[in-house]
Amino acid sequence: MNLMVFGAPGAGKGTQAKFLVEKYNIPQISTGDMLRAAIADKTAMGMEAKKYMDEGELVPDSTIIGIIKDRLEEEDCKKGFILDGFPRTLNQAVALEELMKNSGKKLDKVLSFDVPDELIIQRIAGRRVCSKCGATFHIEFNKPKVQDICDYCGTALVTRKDDNVDTVKNRLENYHKQTAPLIDFYKKMGVFAQIDGSQELSLVTEDMFKNLA
Ligand code: AP5
């Protein structure tokens, strides 16, 4: 199954993608996580991407499309994948279609989490992430068992550098301008499913799986 989780920054894409990974045993392909790994490794691409990410701007399409092309060719994607945070522009969506066509694949479902901007800001302000395994928590809505410690690997939780109010506002603005127009693109393809992402976490998960039944 080839899936995509879609929505504004902080809409819950990464959180819900983890449940899809567990259920279908297919990899989550998060461009945000891949870029953060490249920054941690101090690669040239990572250092270039960091300039954009720190400001809440999108990394150039050519960089992102190159990363995705290489990743989708890896062995573990043969039985399916979950795209998280890609595509974010029309150019990226068209490039993805081309990549899928060339490899004889098709996108089965775009799961879009709809969350109002005010709630997004609240969610991002309270988000804490594991610096080792990338697991995501929230200080109020999705608490770790032990405060500030990852449930899965015991590493200290941190706040992402781009999770500050000014950067989040910019990320939201870029989402509405450059990414939200993709909703029509995927509606026309007949693969788009809208989910009320503002509900309590487990209800969002329930709705997501109903759309895949
Ligand atoms: P990326 O890492 O993809 O960030 P994002 O899209 O801004 O999304 P987030 O990871 O912030 O949010 P999410 O939807 O996964 O929410 P989460 O589940 O964590 O990208 C970062 C940057 O990289 C971009 O700004 C850009 O610069 C660059 N980039 C990446 N991809 C790119 C691309 N394709 N093109 C160009 N540039 C690219 O949830 C958020 C919080 O809410 C958590 O604390 C969670 O616990 C909580 N939560 C989740 N669901 C619920 C719920 N139902 N109720 C209450 N709380 C909830």
What would you note in describing this structure?
- The protein is an alpha/beta fold.
- The protein has a domain at 2-116 and 179-197: P-loop containing nucleotide triphosphate hydrolases (Rossmann fold), CATH 3.40.50.
- The protein is built from 9 helices and 8 strands.
- It has a 5-stranded parallel β-sheet, with helices on both faces. The protein has a 3-stranded antiparallel β-sheet with strand order 6-5-7.
- Helix 2 packs across helix 3 (44-55), helix 4 packs parallel to helix 5 (90-102) and helix 6 packs across helix 7.
- It is globular, with a radius of gyration of 16 Å.
- BIS(adenosine)-5'-pentaphosphate binds next to helix 1, helix 2, helix 3, strand 6 and helix 9.
